[in-house]
Design a protein that fits this description.
Number of strands of chain A: 0
Helix content of chain A: over 70%
Radius of gyration of chain A: 22 Å
CATH class of chain B: Mainly Alpha
Strand content of chain A: under 5%
Structural class of chain B: mainly alpha
Number of helices of chain B: 13
CATH architecture of chain B: Orthogonal Bundle
Shape of chain B: globular
Radius of gyration of chain B: 25 Å
Distance between the termini of chain A: 31 Å
Oligomer: heterodimer
Strand content of chain B: under 5%
Distance between the termini of chain B: 52 Å
Number of strands of chain B: 0
Largest sheet of chain A: none
Structural class of chain A: mainly alpha
CATH topology of chain B: MetI-like fold
Number of helices of chain A: 12
Number of domains of chain B: 1
């Protein structure tokens, strides 16, 4: 493909990527109560609507608590295992890494379905705890994957030096290892949070008034009415995700996040 | 003279022992392995009329369900090929042409991942519906005389799927292309090969690992997704994942839904097995 055609193609591609997102942001400011594009006039009314419509706000809070909580739990479970597996030469290490990465490969709708009936049988029922367990299972592979990659790239000499200089195992972990693998932990946690926020196939099985996540509420809202408030809440959710990415970029640098 | 202290060989210092794996292995055994195994039992009704494989028989012999199974695979295949065709030039551009714009391109490839799938699907409905932008444009240019509803067709589903999946394809391919030495392509050009020939005989074969990884990832993700079909398909496209969703919402036929889920899992497992086999083979060939 001649270079000029390639540039033209790239321009088209960027339009393709941005178009539906821009359309939603535009519609969220529509003054009309049904969806037309281009919009007839500007108004904030749909943003007021999402403040008034309780389920949007309460499910957004559930979604954020769930995303942060499951990423944290996933990190507590996944990071020690990744540190151990990265340096292991045992034959079982490869097998175990595959187990820890496996939840990514199982379709979320199947995992959600299986967990719902299993946890109900264990009388966990449809509670926040069930939802939290399901999302933690899904978070583990993202964190293990990035921490494995980060830690494998580090030389064991750094930790060995600390140990030779008299640091205990705990001190080495706290002052040498964890600071070095932190970009990997944060990159994995970021993927886990973003996936959790949008994980409708896993969440909708555990839907109840207290455990509905934002995508579940949005889907059921869309089945009954089709107005621009969906566009407004989508835009808010996107802004939250962008803000999270921005903060992480300020703290740790985006290059180091995508490099893994 | 004391004997020399035996060195531990070249074994590197290890901070974390094997026991550090125990909590996560326990957690995943209880909340991942056992539930999926229980799902297998759930799909096999022992002692009922029709036998243990009742649901699987229904799924693989009833014409309606066979049709859905085939449609699931067809939709995933078409979406995968479309994402490959759309995504490959983007990955190539990112690695070979973007230069200092690389960061900007990466941003635009990653930005959809910051929005919910519901948002993106909703956006396509806005653009493609009867009162949407596309119809307005086509009417203005006189290409059509009456607005048509493109949302609620299978084309809308494919557009929506490619939009969701193409970032995965681009990132899979670009990470492999980055490792391809640009001098190999330059050598081919110097030796007289045209652009197309260089691409077909040098660049494309060297990036095949990225293509395999990207295609299998996209294929498996499509098999498990139902939201795009639900919101953009208008009932025109029925897939296995969509059927599981509908079974759960309406009929609550647990055993049958479990059986369909296991078939989806089997397809995913076969795909990843194939990926492992393909990548290992290319690895040996080199």
């Amino acid at each position: 493909m001649p270079t000029i055609l390639l540039y033209a193609y790239m321009a088209l591609f960027l339009v393709f990527i941005v178009a539906p997102i821009a359309a939603v942001v535009a519609v969220s400011f529509s003054s009309s109560s049904y969806i037309v594009f281009p919009i007839p006039g500007f108004s904030w009314r749909w943003y007021w609507r999402i403040v008034e419509y309780r389920p949007f706000i309460s499910s957004l809070i559930v979604s954020i608590e769930l995303a942060l909580g499951s990423a944290l739990a996933g990190a507590c479970l996944g990071v020690p295992a990744a540190l151990s597996l990265a340096r292991s030469r045992h034959a079982a290490a490869g097998l175990l890494s595959n187990l820890l990465l496996a939840p990514i490969s199982v379709p979320a709708i199947v995992l959600g379905f299986a967990l719902l009936y299993y946890l109900s049988a264990l009388s966990f029922g449809i509670t926040f705890l069930s939802l939290f367990i399901a999302h933690t299972v899904a978070a583990i592979p993202y964190i293990v994957r990035t921490v494995l990659a980060t830690y494998r790239a580090l030389s064991p000499n750094l930790e060995e030096s600390a140990a030779i200089l008299g640091a205990t195992r705990w001190q080495t972990l706290r002052h040498v290892t964890l600071p070095l693998v932190r970009p990997g932990v944060f990159a994995g946690a970021l993927f886990a949070v973003l996936t959790s926020l949008d994980n409708l196939p896993l969440s909708f099985f555990f839907g109840s008034a207290n455990t509905n996540t934002l995508p579940v509420v949005m889907l059921s809202y869309m089945e009954n009415q089709f107005d621009p408030s969906i566009a407004a809440i989508s835009t808010v959710q996107m802004l939250i995700a962008i803000a999270a990415l921005f903060i992480l970029d300020r703290l740790y640098g985006i290059e180091r996040l995508t490099a893994v | 003279m004391p004997p020399p202290v035996p060195r531990r060989g070249l074994r590197p210092y290890r901070l974390a022992g094997p026991s550090w794996c125990l909590p996560v292995v326990f957690f995943l055994a209880v909340f991942f392995v056992v539930p999926l195994a229980a799902n297998l039992l759930r799909s096999a009704p022992a002692g009922e009329a029709g036998g243990v494989l009742f649901y699987y028989e229904k799924l693989l012999t009833d014409g309606y369900y066979v049709g859905i199974l085939l449609e699931t695979l067809k939709v995933a295949l078409v979406a995968t090929l479309a994402s490959l065709v759309v995504g490959y030039p983007v990955a190539y551009f990112m690695v070979r042409h973007a230069g200092r714009w690389n960061g900007v391109i990466v941003f635009f490839v990653v930005v959809p991942l910051l929005t919910s799938i519901i948002m993106r699907t909703f956006g396509w409905r806005v653009l493609l519906s009867r009162r949407g932008l596309l119809n307005a444009g086509l009417l203005d240019w006189g290409l059509i005389t009456r607005p048509t509803d493109i949302a609620e067709t299978s084309i809308a589903v494919y557009i929506g799927l490619v939009h969701v999946l193409v970032p995965f394809m681009v990132l899979s391919i670009s990470s492999v292309l980055q490792g391809v030495d640009v001098r190999l392509e330059e050598t081919a050009r110097v030796l007289g090969a045209g652009r197309l020939r260089t691409f077909l005989h040098v660049t494309l074969p060297l990036s095949v690992d990225g293509i395999v990884t990207g295609c299998i990832l996209v294929f498996v993700v499509t098999n498990g997704s139902f939201l795009t079909m639900l919101l953009l398909g208008g009932g025109k496209i029925n897939t296995l994942a969509l059927l599981i969703y509908q079974q759960f919402v309406t009929t609550q036929d647990v055993g049958f839904a479990a059986a369909m889920g296991n078939v989806l899992m089997l397809v995913a497992a076969l795909c990843f097995g194939m990926q492992y086999w393909l990548l290992r083979r290319t690895g040996i060939r080199r």
